[in-house]
Amino acid sequence: MRQLVRESAKGAPIRTVPFRFLRAWLRIGERGYSGAGQTGEADLYTLREHRLPGGRDLLLYGRAVHDEAPGLALPAEPSGAEPHLRWHPLQGEWVAYAGARQARTFLPEAAACPLCPAKEGRLGEIPFTGFEVAVFENRFPALAAASAAPVLASVETAPAAGRCEVVVFSADHTGGLGSFSLDRLALLIEVWGARVEALGKTYPYILPFENRGEEIGVTLHHPHGQIYAFPFVPVRAARAAGAQAEAPVVARLIETADSALVLDDDGEALALVPPFAMYPYETWIVPRRRVPGPAALRPSEIEAMARLLRRGVRRLDGLFGRPMPYILIVQTAPRGFENSFHMTIEIRPFLRDANKLKYLAGVEQGSGVFLVDVPPELAAERLRAVSPGGEA
Ligand SMILES: [Zn+2]
Fold first, then answer.
1. Which of 65, 207, 269, 340 could form a disulfide with 245 if both were Cys (CB 3.0 to 4.6 A apart)?
2. What's the angle, vertex CA 350, arms to CA 387 and CA 305, rounded to 5?
3. What is the SS3 assignment for 36?
4. If you measure from the C-alpha of residue 220 to the centroid of ligand 1, how many angstroms do you get, rounded to a whole number?
């Protein structure tokens, strides 16, 4: 269904990808999608593919065609210690080593933010003065196609031949999933779907995620997430997919959801605290219909997920009156589990009280048993008491 619509001045192709279904944008009532229903012109997102120095991909997704001529980008990073994998014989899983990551940018001043659009006299990762959602290959990847494994006598090794991408949610340096327009959140969900689908052709497991907050080691404040494409299926993903192949765990969770645990029911999607939450105030956004990943969501489901995602983050931010540090994970089907896996978006908050961080400490690290001091029913009650604001 993809079609090439034009070439940019520098030869970068701009492709327009038709939506699979007609969108009911007018229901959202944002961003003036007037006439979308009549002309169908808004039923498109555009994808511009651009090459960065060193041959890295930069993908610009948006509602509007992006045809600005590129400026100067940051130079390619000289390849340092190449990432590789080592097998942990006791845990039965791979550990990834990436020495070059120590050199990565650490909390730069906003004026030097590498994720902001590059302006005259200031370099950035994205050599344009504006964009909507940008995806580019990480300059400091933990997984890279060029990876080569050292031969070691004491441990089994393998190339970390995956791919790491950065997803920049907005050209604005501030804001986040709790403050973006619903259309931007919908676009982001579509981008997750597009990347999971594209990378899934090569790699067996794709993990889109967002780390938010200095408390959990975020080095850049600009709203962004990442996507890791693994050359293998990690143990936890394989275990979760295996459980879903044996029984429709997520469907049952939705069917039997105790109203005490539900935060929002949007018909086509649900926000809830799972009864087996591993983190205090853990929040899941789940499509009611089983789909293996965001690419299979219908437009109305994307809209529902976008609404619930924003409400979920707003509740977490409102809970202690400060931005909640969290890890957001888009759980997608590993290869081979597409017919049984039910995707979820999981938010794992890292504050258990206004000034108390949830640490994975001795018990969790030593035994793998999580201690949670806020029962899920109480967490849901407290989250429901926070107003997520209107839909504007
Ligand atoms: Zn920035």
1. 340
2. 50
3. helix
4. 8
Tens digit of each residue's pLDDT (9 = 90 or more) over 33-61: 323 333 333 446 899 999 988 889 999 99
Token digits of residue 122? 């200031």
Gap between the Cα atoms of 381 and 145, Å rounded: 46
Indicate the pLDDT class of residue 9, thresholds 50, 70 and 90. Answer: very low
Instruction: Go through the domains of the chain in sequence order and give each one's CATH number.
Output: 1-392 (3.30.428.10)
Instruction: State yes or no: is 224 an active-site residue.
Output: yes
Residue 117, both tokens: 């659009």
Identify the three-state secondary structure at position 122.
strand
Tokens, residue 173: 């340096």
Tokens representing 70?
A: 């590129």
Cα(196)–Cα(188) distance, integer angstroms = 12
Spot the catalytic one: 66, 84, 224, 342.
224
* 3-state helix vs strand vs coil in the chain, percent to 5: 25, 25, 50
Task: Supply the mean pLDDT for the chain.
Answer: 86
**Are 114 and 224 contacting, i.e. CB atoms less than 8 angstroms apart?**
no
Determine if the pTM surpasses 0.85.
yes
For tokens 């014989």, the residue is 89
What integer is the mean pLDDT of 328-335?
A: 98
Q: If you measure from the C-alpha of residue 208 to the centroid of ligand 1, how many angstroms do you get, rounded to a whole number?
A: 20
Residue 277 has pLDDT above 90, yes or no: yes
pLDDT at 358: 87
